[in-house]
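Handout, tutorial session.
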Amino acid sequence: MIRIVRGALVALSLCARAAIGSAQHSTDGGAPAVNAPLVAPDSIAPYGRVDGALLRPASYTYQLTLVRNAVQTPLGVRAVQISESNAGGVPGWLIAESRTGSAVPTTDSLWVSRTDLSPARWAATIDRTQLGVSFSRDSAFGAVQSYRGRASFAAAVPAGALLTGGMVERVIELLPLREGYRAAASLLLFDLATPRALDAEIAVERAERTRVGSVDMDCWVVTLRAGVLTQRLWVTRDAPRVVKSEQATAGGILLSVLQ
């Protein structure tokens, strides 16, 4: 299974990039296959509408490291860029990502609405596999092209579904984080070119002062859970931004730290 879990859990975003193709794992320390049954969050409200007008153009660079038995192995660099862009003639945002220095280079380009960050169009690559998706209010239409050929699909999409790592981070930064905050979410998974939504939960685990580089920062530690999979993100309390994240994988702990 060629895994594109970036955001949503590779490159430290649980949601959005799971399987394209057949049973072959990524070689860069990606998330394990999602085979266990996923448990829906109990009766908590979804995270609701975020104010996309609060987003600003920005660029972030994260160093990726795999930690196993106290040994750290660099996995390359993940770059995220947010810019103003039009999708179908409608003003919006482009959340573009690239991962370099790893065994398999990957890219994501996600166009979202300016008002609430709902997805409009998504283009992604992992090595020679390509994904293209267009979204309506409650549906997705797209195609996957790989060495195995081309497959198209159409599927229902829950409102507020999360896709890429960059989208997950931007949404979490715009949430009203506080002690005890919990909200339900949906992660969109592509398995053998068939989209399916996974129930997930976003929760503030604790407040913590953490060091990023040479600077100590006051952060919320936010967990994103879908069944047996968990990602933690450190979000600064002032001028919120994701400065660190971690995820347990089959190969060790995958760390992502803002440079």
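The second record follows below. Compare its token runs with those of the first.
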Amino acid sequence: MPVWTTTTVPQRRQFAYWREMICEAFLDLTPESRLREGFYGRVRQRSLDQLDLARIESQAQRVSRTEADIARSPQSGYYANFQLRGLGVTTQDGRVAVTRPGDLTLIDTTRPFSFEFGGDFSQLTLHIPEQLLEGHLDRPTPTATRISTVDGVGAAVRHALTAIDAGQLAPASAARLARHTCGLLAVALDQPEPVGPVRERQGRLLTQALNDIDEHLRDADLSPARTAVRLGISVRRLHQLFAGRELSYAATVRRRRLDQARRDLADPARAALRIIDIAADNGFADVTHFHRVFRQAYGCTPAQLRHRETGH
């Protein structure tokens, strides 16, 4: 079962390696990100006879399949992407699907598309040869449409994907279940949830808000008011964007600052920095508060994590 991770190369090469990784694991793609040094990405891929299931974990980025990419690798087929963590925006053929944890969407590899992730994310990606899906459909395949997996056939697709990903099935059984999942997915695609203009704008604004948080994460004055001004919306509207998410604006900022502090503590190149300096660099003015919320988030102290990851 192949596993690729950017942690195997020096920080200065991590994003470049990520570009190489996803092209090798999937097909020719063009990723872009504000992040460069210290970029984290991991792909674990499971072969399922004619299909493949991959678990992807990475950071904020935009991934496109352009006309040039298609010309270089004219691979036909589909990818069904099941969101596990974070928020994604999928665009293809003029349609836009905003996916949150528990949502699924489909893209066609023969036409241009893009994915946008405003922050850290993870997803399961099932590669499906066209003949295994199109044989089950009575109409053109509706790509870039959101499919809920809360109940009904969507829930059956979710259970199948998570069962395969768990790795407890025999290879032959996992391959049979993957083929069966194609039929379930075709049924779920018959009635995808419509994505209206209002929802599209909400998704885009939320992505912009998450991007703003990431861009200004180390700013001491990062606040709802500052983000709202940069987005050209009211503070009330900003909070409404986060109302349906697991984390509020403030909790999102705190979590992302903690995630960045964790990466800094695990970085051997930053081993000479004091923990209080790393806390301050990531927006925590009160080191006692930083220790408390860090332990709540990761189950260990900053010093314990640093020692475990770097030996210092």
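Points raised in discussion: The first helix runs from residue 14 to 25.
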